[in-house]
Write a structure and sequence with these properties.
The complex is a heterodimer of chains A (about 300) and B (about 325). Chain A has about 300 residues and is mainly α. Chain A has 15 helices and two strands. By secondary structure, chain B is mostly helical. Chain B has one domain: ABC transporter involved in vitamin B12 uptake, BtuC. The chains are: A mainly alpha (about 300), B mainly alpha (about 325).
């Protein structure tokens, strides 16, 4: 990819950022929150994509990192009295270390076994968050002191989104990303060519665990209340997975597109059809897995609208 | 390695119990403990039902059906509807629900999964995941998210002064044993059962021998759904259930088949009983244990996959 294309991509990103910075004041707080949550799902889908799209280890329990981030913010703010910004870094650190340990164990498993083990790990951490009442408040959850923070959280989420996009873009265009792709295509061949697969797999998982933790932290400060069943909600994983797959996993633009399109669709539909929209999402997952495994980007590449290659 | 791990896993509840001083080793405690173990053992029959269907599908098609727990949940709701809607006894209702379940499994296999058998392993995983989501929310739309139970023989059968067994547990254990033995004999002796085993061993060779393997896939899937629904019927007479409990049944079933050996029918029976006994020990001895029992399934699943992926009875090659 030439320098011109990198430049063009950054100009597009900068234009989107400027638009997001200056447009919101004219809208209501609801629209602002809507944009904030949309950016949260862009972050989540992109992070999921690092381990599952680039590296090919499909995670069914990625919500665990999001939940750890929200609990880190909740516990440190409410029980230790920290300012909310440092708690985000603390959450990212805890989540990254947890991902390193978890990854060292479960990344030995291949394909479906990794997926199910991650699902089990996420559910297990949810149970621990429910049971460990002295730390997490148990099933009652943690309530934050009430403040109006839609601007702060909006800007924090915008910064996080920019960082995540740049990191995901860097991963996609670096030797690091090429090695991850090699692991996805053929792990044994990659190993025989001298790629330290264990190191790269664990780094990919750690990288994909940091951003959801920060996003979860910002989100918990925004909604001002956390409890295990909503912070470790399996639907969050479903959304990450579906958004990234719909857009096209293994690309940079795919998860962004998927999150923007599908989050808007679900926002419009869930108010009117709270149950039907999940039925529709279930059918949609089946459809995407069966008929468009490469997502929108694969569709675009086939028609010559986007360049063939590793990432876009 | 696996033996050592299991010894530690079973010793852990004792250790925690002794540490928190809820274990006494006097006569009353031993009687209670025996009751708990016995009830856990009986409950294992139900878990074996969960595991049997999943292991059958895995053995024949190498597919992990993540919607399995949702089929169990569906079975519980079918039994509930038969009991309250038609006034049918939950056990007699099996004659009604099992054929329906078989048709459901057949249909899912024909429409969704036949096309993806033998392809990338993750496609069926994602598709059954989507299917499970659809099933949860369709059931939720009909029955709401309220917890339901069927009051069926809730009294306990006294074996001695201090030891007793829930009558519904005993009946469900007997039912589970009868059904598993029936399926086992079917797999061993019947022509179709033999064809199923042949397909599990080597689908290509089975095809060359004149077995219509897609037909066998549909029968297997139907059988697995029937086993799951039977498990659901047994769940409905002893526990509360709601549409969202399915995911936990899936993970339990997966823990069971990983422990017993993926694709091994007898392994699923043993794994079911072992998981149930461990769960009952945790809920009995660990403070706040009833909330922690779920950890048994998750922990077993992850550690057994890491220590000995083929489980107790699985074959060496995967």
């Amino acid at each position: 990819m030439s320098n011109w294309e990198h430049l063009r991509n950054f100009v597009v990103l900068a234009a989107a950022v400027v638009a997001l910075l200056f447009v919101p004041p004219i809208f209501s707080i609801y629209i602002r929150s809507f944009f904030m949550f949309m950016m949260l799902y862009v972050v989540l889908a992109l992070s999921w994509n690092i381990i599952s799209g680039y590296t090919g280890y499909v995670s069914f329990g990625h919500v665990v990192f999001y939940g750890i981030g929200s609990y880190a913010t909740g516990i440190l703010m409410v029980k230790a009295g920290w300012h909310w910004i440092p708690t985000l870094f603390a959450g990212a650190a805890v989540s990254g270390v947890f991902a390193a340990f978890l990854g060292y164990a479960v990344l030995r498993l291949k394909g479906p076994y990794f997926a199910i083990a991650m699902l089990g790990a996420a559910e297990g951490v949810r149970v621990i968050a429910t049971v460990w009442e002295s730390l997490t408040g148990g099933g009652d959850g943690i309530g934050f002191p009430n403040v109006e923070n839609s601007w702060e959280t909006y800007h924090a989420m915008l910064i996080l989104t920019i960082i995540t996009i740049i990191v995901a873009y860097w991963v996609g265009h670096s030797r690091f990303g090429i090695r991850l792709n090699a692991i996805r295509e053929d792990e044994i061949a990659a190993q025989s060519l001298g790629v330290n697969t264990t190191f790269y797999k664990i780094s990919a998982l750690v990288l994909s665990a940091i951003f959801p933790a920060v996003g979860g932290g910002i989100q918990s400060y925004k909604v001002l209340y956390i409890e295990p069943d909503s912070e470790f909600f399996i639907l969050v994983t479903i959304y990450m997975k579906l958004f990234a797959m719909f857009g096209g996993k293994g690309t940079v633009i795919g998860p962004i597109l998927g999150a923007v399109i599908l989050y808007s669709v679900q926002e419009i539909t869930w108010i009117k059809f709270p149950t039907a929209h999940l039925i529709a999402f279930g059918l949609f997952i089946i459809f995407v897995a069966r008929f468009m495994p490469r997502g929108l980007m694969g569709f675009a590449v086939d028609r010559g609208w986007a360049r063939k290659g590793m990432v876009h | 390695m696996l033996g050592a791990f299991l010894a530690v896993a079973y010793a852990l509840p004792f250790a925690v119990g002794i540490y928190t001083e809820s274990v006494f080793f006097d006569l009353q405690w031993l009687a209670d403990f025996t009751t708990v173990l016995l009830n856990g053992f009986m409950q294992g029959g139900v878990y074996a039902m969960f595991g049997a269907g999943l292991t059958l599908i895995f053995g024949v098609m190498r597919i992990i059906n993540v919607a399995h727990g949702e089929t169990v949940m569906l079975g519980a709701y079918m039994t509930w509807s038969a009991f309250f809607g038609l006034g049918v006894d939950p056990l007699l209702a099996l004659f009604l629900t099992l054929p329906l379940a078989f048709v459901w499994g057949w249909f899912v296999q024909k429409v969704l999964l036949n096309a993806v058998v033998g392809g990338p392993e993750l496609t069926p995983l994602l598709m059954t995941f989507g299917l499970g989501l659809v099933m949860i929310h369709v059931v939720e739309a009909i029955f709401t998210t309220d917890f339901r139970t069927i009051p069926y023989l809730p009294d306990a059968l006294r074996l001695s002064e201090n030891i007793s067994v829930g009558r519904n547990r005993l009946i469900s254990f007997v039912m589970a044993t009868v059904i598993s033995c029936g399926v086992y004999i079917f797999l061993k002796k019947h022509r179709i059962g033999k064809a199923i085993r042949a397909t599990a061993q080597n689908a290509d060779v089975a095809m060359v021998c004149g077995i219509n393997i897609f037909h066998i896939y549909m029968i297997t899937s139907g059988l697995a759904a029937a086993l799951a629904v039977a498990g659901g019927a047994l769940v409905s007479i002893q526990f509360g259930f709601n549409p969202e409990t399915g995911i936990f049944y899936t993970l339990q079933a997966f823990a069971i088949i990983v422990l017993g050996g993926r694709g091994n029918f007898i392994g699923a029976m043993i794994g079911g009983v072992m998981l149930a006994v461990m769960e009952s020990m945790i809920s009995f001895m660990v403070p706040n244990g009833t909330a922690m029992v779920e950890l048994a399934a998750y922990g077993l699943m992850i550690f057994v996959l890491l220590i000995r992926p083929r489980g107790l009875l699985g074959e060496k090659t995967d």
